[in-house]
Amino acid sequence: MSVKEILGRMIEFDDDGHLKNFADWNEELAKELAKEEGINELTDRHWLVINFMRKEFQEKGDAPSIRKLTKESGVDTKELYQLFPKGPAKKAARIAGLPKPKGCI
């Protein structure tokens, strides 16, 4: 576990680098986490994925896998990799303030 100051707040992260507390998340924090992942601007398509992931997590208690994302979010695999290069489910979950999805390396 680690703690990092972001936007003037001390934020706790788990051992995988994901937010420890779901309630710490907000859109401004998401933008900062995206920059850390090399994504300088979150577009409407990014937000579609992020909001889908947060809704799924709130309803089911787990971050959705890449398979569920591509089947149900309205974003296909190719676009998902363009939006969140090199590990889209894990990166999108981190930016969405969620734990690493089960099955992600």
Question: Short summary of the structure?
Answer:
The chain is mainly alpha-helical.
Describe this structure in words.
The protein contains five helices and two strands. It has helices at residues 27-36, 44-60, 66-72, 77-83, 88-95; strands spanning 2-6, 9-13. The radius of gyration is 13 Å and the shape is globular. Strands 1-2 form a two-stranded antiparallel sheet. The chain has one domain (2-95): Arc Repressor Mutant, subunit A, CATH 1.10.10.370. By secondary structure, it is mainly alpha-helical. The longest helix is centred in the middle third of the chain and has 17 residues, at 44-60. The model has no long low-confidence stretch (mean pLDDT 92).
CA-CA gap between termini: 18 Å
**Domains, number:** 1
CATH topology: Arc Repressor Mutant, subunit A
Residues in helix, %: 40-55%
What is the overall number of helices? 5
CATH homologous superfamily classification: DsrC protein, C-terminal domain
What Rg do the Cα atoms give?
Answer: 13 Å
In round numbers, the mean pLDDT is 92
* Overall CATH architecture: Orthogonal Bundle
Largest sheet strand order? 1-2
**What structural category characterises the helix and strand content?**
mainly alpha
Low-confidence stretches: none
How many distinct beta strands? 2
Strand content: 5-15%
- Indicate the CATH class: Mainly Alpha
What's the shape? globular
Q: What string gives the helices and strands in order?
A: EEHHHHH
Most strands sheet: 2 strands, antiparallel
